[in-house]
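Worked problem 6 (solution included).
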Amino acid sequence: MAEMIKTKALVIHSIRWHETSKIVTLFSREFGLIKAIARGVFRKNSPLAGRLETLNLILAIISFKETRELQIITTADLLESFPSIKSDWQRLPYALAILELIQKVIHPAHKDKVFFDFVVQMIRAISLTKTPLVVLWYFLLKLSSYLGFKPDLDQCSICQKKNFKDGVFFILQKGGLVCMDCANQALHQLKLTEYDLSFLQKLQTFPYKKIHELDTKFGFSVDFTTMLLQYLNVHLGHPLRLESLKMIL
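Solution. The predicted structure is:
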């Protein structure tokens, strides 16, 4: 027997189903990922019209049954629609990349209210920041930590040295640093300058509620998007490609 559940949720993906309905993937605060159908959403005067667009934050009432592949959305109140992101092609790809990561990385049965609130805060940060790319880097770093493989950016993993004026190597498989003195050619993965590392260290410890205030002069020697996605790839054990970022290539 189905039960009625009420939850905040981000709409992370939606597709039209037949003429009048829509299938949506929701990232919910209390129940994790939910795939559901909104029947009649495209009919004239539907109370769900415009409320189930990708990126919308909603308060939904859902007819839920564990044995059913598709749940049923009965009502949805719009809480936030993030128009400043949707209308700005300099922001939209980064917000969509976060939603895409959730869909590809988070297990459907996983439930975590704190992580949900963090994700919503990241979307808000993208709407506020001058540098949305930095927010994506921050999310990738924090996602790695959340999944259990936080990179150690503090010291050389071999000699514990912390002074890296000559640069340092980041070892993807180990998730740690190797200084120039301890470097072995076979271990070389990605060389970071002292400036690169200093920024990553600052990024890793920056308060998440203020991440939209973090600015930078850029000028890095590496592409942090590629680096952090490669790091996730290595530790997840499968390729992770973000279609959303193709919008800015």
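Discussion: The two ends are 48 Å apart (CA to CA).
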